[in-house]
């Protein structure tokens, strides 16, 4: 068998494994958490209202994230006609690309066996399964992080290869308009320049190329400009307060201000090392007692490959540790590089652990098969265990009991909007309406109904006149009409009113057919 054919077969097997692990049960699971509900809803609304550069949520501008991931989901909805499937396809694509890139980098940096280990370590890690099987931005961000790493390593360790460097810069730009931290691969230049200056082995010196290095910046800006330039033009043409507020929010508050002074998920500096890495980087983290001394020996030999990979992992961890806001998934970008750094040592580790121990070797092989088999089976078990999104039944009952009348939302979440089967009325997501505003609206619009959480029900309404619809993780929900008003609540008229309706209500997939009835008054 030729070397090229053997390489293709090996890569094909790894891609098949990635497809089985990440794609198991794909399409069976509904969006369940608030992030998945939000991103699918914004994508469907984008298809309806045609506002590709300024996304909306239930008729109100959605300023929290750049739109590249939303574009990807909307595009997959168009291609497949299945929103419940399309939401998870960007992360599946990222997982396949990451598997191929890690295999190729391991093969080029060391040998084909190291490439196989790099891909397997990446796919076997718990955090890979938890993130790449979710319909969230961080799975899609993995695509741009890995492409950025791939291009930089091809240039800095296997180059010079300026084309790969510019690909890395473009990937950083696209990563930024997926999520602001998409620039992280560029941090690898810091350990690279240190290694060149100190004469470490394995790195490729490229002195006298200042112009070529600096050209990476306009390449990255051009990628960012795919969204930013049309956005600025749109804001300039509209000139309205909402568009200007969106530009300020997305370009300033949701990036630098959120990093420096997070208003949610605040955790101490050591959070990732104590709460995340010991669990989410299993099973790779179990080998650290052997890996750390081995890495120390490699660094003592001035191995530039080890320095760049571990240095970049350390910089990513430091970057997120310094931010006051922390979530488990934030440090996932560091995982592919860590898998590469571990892969080169796996043959040595296996010999150390299992040489002359056939029984132990068989046990290890069995455990590996069980580990991968468990993740594959879980992909089908989870949808059965989780069931349907509870908002589905709540919004179906609300539409039936109210005969499709306008429904005022109080303390609402994205699931109420995503699964709505009738026109919904709200007063802004951030400035959440309370029962006071809802009852005031019903007095002025006696044909409407309101969706009220149990905690607010008896304060403004008569519970005996309310219809209990069901429970979500946050509340028990009731439907009330004007006749349930107990006369105890008063409120000023809302500053803004948004009315939104899916044209094909009842399921997320019905929303991509045509435009939505959405207005802000």
TrEMBL record:
Residues 502-521 are annotated as: Disordered. It is a multi-pass membrane protein. Residues 64-224 form the Glycosyltransferase RgtA/B/C/D-like domain. Keywords: Cell membrane, Glycosyltransferase, Membrane, Transferase, Transmembrane, Transmembrane helix. The chain crosses the membrane at residues 85-105, 140-158, 164-190, 211-233, 269-295, 307-325, 331-350, 362-381. The keyword Transmembrane applies. Pfam families: PMT_2. The keyword Glycosyltransferase applies. GO terms for molecular function: pentosyltransferase activity. Residues 510-521 have a biased composition (Low complexity). One of its GO terms (biological process) is response to iron(III) ion. It is found in: Cell membrane. Its main location: membrane. It comes from the Bacteria. This is Dolichyl-phosphate-mannose-protein mannosyltransferase. It comes from Azotobacter beijerinckii.
């Amino acid at each position: 068998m030729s070397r090229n054919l053997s390489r293709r077969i090996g890569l094909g097997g790894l891609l098949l494994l990635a497809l089985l692990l990440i794609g198991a049960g794909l399409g069976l699971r509904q969006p369940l958490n608030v992030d998945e509900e939000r991103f699918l809803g914004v994508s469907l609304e984008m298809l309806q209202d045609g506002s590709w550069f300024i996304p909306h949520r239930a008729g109100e501008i959605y300023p929290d994230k750049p739109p590249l991931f939303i574009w990807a989901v909307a595009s997959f909805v168009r291609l497949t006609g299945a929103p419940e499937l399309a939401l998870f396809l960007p992360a599946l694509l990222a997982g396949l690309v990451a598997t191929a890139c890690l295999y190729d980098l391991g093969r080029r940096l060391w040998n084909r066996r190291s490439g196989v280990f790099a891909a397997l370590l990446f796919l076997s890690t718990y955090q890979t399964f938890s993130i790449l099987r979710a319909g969230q931005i961080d799975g899609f961000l993995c695509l741009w992080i890995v492409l950025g790493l791939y291009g930089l390593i091809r240039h800095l360790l296997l180059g010079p290869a300026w084309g790969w460097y510019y690909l890395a810069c473009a990937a950083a730009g696209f990563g930024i308009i997926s999520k602001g931290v998409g620039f992280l691969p560029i941090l690898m230049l810091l350990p690279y320049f240190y290694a060149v200056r100190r004469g470490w082995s394995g790195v490729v010196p490229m002195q006298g190329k200042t112009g070529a290095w600096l050209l990476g910046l306009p390449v990255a800006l051009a990628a960012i400009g795919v969204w930013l330039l049309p956005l600025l033009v749109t804001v300039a043409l509209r000139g309205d307060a909402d568009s200007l507020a969106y530009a300020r929010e997305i370009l300033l508050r949701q990036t630098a201000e959120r990093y420096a002074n997070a208003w949610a998920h605040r955790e101490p500096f050591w959070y990732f090392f104590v709460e995340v890495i010991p669990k989410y980087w299993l099973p790779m983290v179990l080998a650290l007692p052997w890996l750390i001394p081995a890495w120390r020996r490699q660094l003592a030999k001035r191995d530039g490959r080890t320095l760049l990979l571990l240095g970049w992992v350390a910089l990513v961890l430091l970057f997120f540790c310094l931010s006051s806001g922390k979530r488990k998934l934030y440090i996932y970008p560091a995982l592919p590089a860590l898998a590469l750094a571990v892969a080169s040592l796996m043959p040595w580790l296996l010999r150390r652990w299992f040489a002359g121990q056939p029984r132990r070797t068989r046990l290890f092989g069995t455990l590996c098969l069980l580990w991968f088999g468990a993740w594959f089976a879980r992909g089908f078990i989870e949808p059965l265990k989780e069931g349907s999104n509870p908002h589905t039944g709540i919004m179906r009952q609300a539409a039936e009991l109210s005969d499709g009348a306008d429904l005022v939302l109080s303390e609402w979440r994205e699931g109420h909007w995503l699964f709505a089967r009738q026109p919904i009325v709200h007063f802004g997501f951030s400035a959440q309406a309370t029962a006071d505003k809802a009852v005031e609206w019903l007095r002025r619009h006696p044909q409407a109904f309101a969706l009220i959480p149990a905690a607010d029900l008896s304060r403004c309404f008569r519970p005996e006149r309310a219809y209990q619809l069901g429970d979500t993780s946050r509340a028990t929900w009731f439907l009330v009409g004007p006749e349930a008003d107990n006369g105890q609540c008063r409120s000023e008229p809302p500053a803004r009113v948004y009315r939104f309706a899916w044209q094909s209500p009842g399921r997320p997939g019905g929303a991509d057919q045509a435009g939505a009835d959405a207005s802000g008054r």
